[in-house]
Automatic annotation (TrEMBL):
Record localization: Cell inner membrane
Gene: ccmB
Alphabetized InterPro entries for the sequence: Cyt_c_biogenesis_CcmB (IPR003544), Cyt_c_CcmB_bac (IPR026031)
GO molecular function, one term: heme transmembrane transporter activity
One GO CC term on file: plasma membrane
Pfam families, per the entry: CcmB (PF03379)
GO BP: cytochrome c biosynthetic process; cytochrome complex assembly
Record's keyword annotation contains Transmembrane: yes
Keywords: Cell inner membrane, Cell membrane, Cytochrome c-type biogenesis, Membrane, Transmembrane, Transmembrane helix, Transport
Protein name in UniProt: Heme exporter protein B
Similarity annotation: Belongs to the CcmB/CycW/HelB family.
Amino acid sequence: MMWRVFCLELRVAFRHGADIAGPLWFFLMVITLFPLSVGPQPQLLARIAPGIIQVAALLASLLALERLFRDDLQDGSLEQLMLLPVPLPAVVLAKVLAHWAVTGLPLMMLSPLVALLLGMDVYGWKIMALTLLLGTPALGFLAAPGVALTAGLRRGGVLLGILVLPLSVP
């Protein structure tokens, strides 16, 4: 049953291409614009690149997380998901993993390009890719309760950021 929920979430996400492309473009824009604010020194950019990439991935993931439960609440399918014969945490797990497959995985696939743009070495990129592999799904699990709390609000994204960002800072 969880596999069906996972596949359903993937199908819904791929029907709305802007929901996939938006966070990726945001991620690339933040990474591209950041050197304009700190200067083009390659040594400085290579040294602060992991932090830039993690913050950009965090913000890009938050953009997409807002719709984790919102669409289901609006069309009434959230109640149907609660009636499934599997525990509700398993349904949330499937939804968060599908969200990660749609946003976190493409962010990881962009990480070599971003590392090249910021002048990171191969060893640093491998460590950064590992932290993205662990950090992006963890962010989804941290944010799921906040998304559930703000799903019915019109401007829930702002409140979601206020709720989730303090939890995601190490």
